[in-house]
Amino acid sequence: MSEDLPTGTTLPATAAETSPENPWPLQLLSHKLKAHIDRTPSAWVEGQVIELNRRGSNAYMTLRDIDAEISLPASVWTTVLDRQDIPLERGSRVVALLKPEFWLKTGRLSMSVKDIRPVGLGDLLARIERLRQALALEGLFADSRKKRLPILPHRIGLITGRDSDAKKDVLRNAALRWPAVEFEIREVAVQGNAAVTQVVAALRELDADPRVDVIVIARGGGALEDLLPFSSEELIRAVSDASTPVVSAIGHEADRPILDDVADLRASTPTDAAKRIVPDVVEELARVRQARDQLRRGVSRLVEQETDRLASLRSRPVLSAPEGMVTNRLEDVERLSSRSRAAIASAVVRAADQLVHLQAQVRALSPQKTLDRGYAVVQLAGDHPVGGQARAVVRHPSQAPAGTDLAVRVAGGKFSARSTGAQKS
Predict the structure, then answer these.
(1) Model confidence over 215-238: pLDDT tens digits?
(2) At what angle do helices 233-241 and 121-137 cross, to 10 degrees?
(3) Which of 54, 55, 53, 73 is nearest to 63 (CA)?
(4) Are 116 and 47 in contact (CB under 8 A)?
(5) Beta strand 71-77 with 155-160: parallel, antiparallel or unpaired?
(6) Is 309 left (phi over 0), alpha (psi -120 to 50) or beta?
(7) Which residues contact 132 (CB under 8 A, 6 or more apart)?
(8) pTM of the model
(9) From CA 162, how far away is CA 170, in angstroms rounded?
(10) What is the pLDDT of residues 237-276, one digit of tens each?
């Protein structure tokens, strides 16, 4: 490369050092690009052959991504194609070993296919199974993550193909079971490279709608290759992250897509999904009638039981002749009143007798009774106090020497006397 470059000039070592005054020659850029691309390793990629043209010893093909609208042209030697047991054709799913090549003179970048292999059904199934096991280890299929479907959804989100039989089956059968059901429909591609992107976008849009109570992803079956979008890891994780319950209604029993494992409910067909997400109005009305009959019988039975119990209570003597309670209590009151009066009278009589007895005792001890028996009380007259006490009772002759004036009290009254002194007995 250095031999082809002009001599006698000082060129920038890197592209960042170039300037309008000191640019690179075009050939230098081309050589550097080629050197960089030549160092790029080959890579195995997966895609679908959408164009294939043979021109002598070379063949030209266009590969398209499985899940996105991205295509890449490539060239391949016909000898590589001839090694295949089954000739490749448009629509084949393949894995190819690509090596980028840069043509120096024309500045054209091309992709060269060094090897190519068709992807068979066995390879696809094995790949799906590996992805299924990996997601299961993450816990995406755990029952604890499953959300309960509403008993009666007010609005159902439906993701299905454009004017598909699956859409018609869901709408028709749901309306037959519950005529008032409402749908929020998103028609998308359900196969091909745009299917995953469109289904995920519709799922997220319906999940963000607060009016949608449950989301149904429906397709009426198909070949394994047609159902591959419903085993896409991007779609599976989007369903797992959705806050709205999701129902898988892919009508394919032989090979179940991974969507069936992550969905909150798996329906075998779109028709089965319609039957499982809305109740049958006929059955519900029958249940309502049955519940009303049971309630009516229960209430009637309760009323009858309470009526019988009330009649039983009313037939008891205490209620049939309620005045008996008063009569019995009146007799008790009269009996107790009589006993109380008798007890009080007896107590009064005993108290009266005790009072008479006490009066007799008091009278017997009265000084007047002593006087009545002939005794007299002799007191000193008022002019002769003894011991500082006037009219003291004379208890000893020494208290009344001769000439002492005395007052004598007898039963009949008082009289005065004078002492003549003490006398010998």
Answers:
(1) 999 998 777 777 888 988 999 999
(2) 30
(3) 73
(4) no
(5) unpaired
(6) alpha
(7) 231, 258, 261
(8) 0.55
(9) 13
(10) 999 999 999 999 987 666 688 999 999 999 988 999 999 9
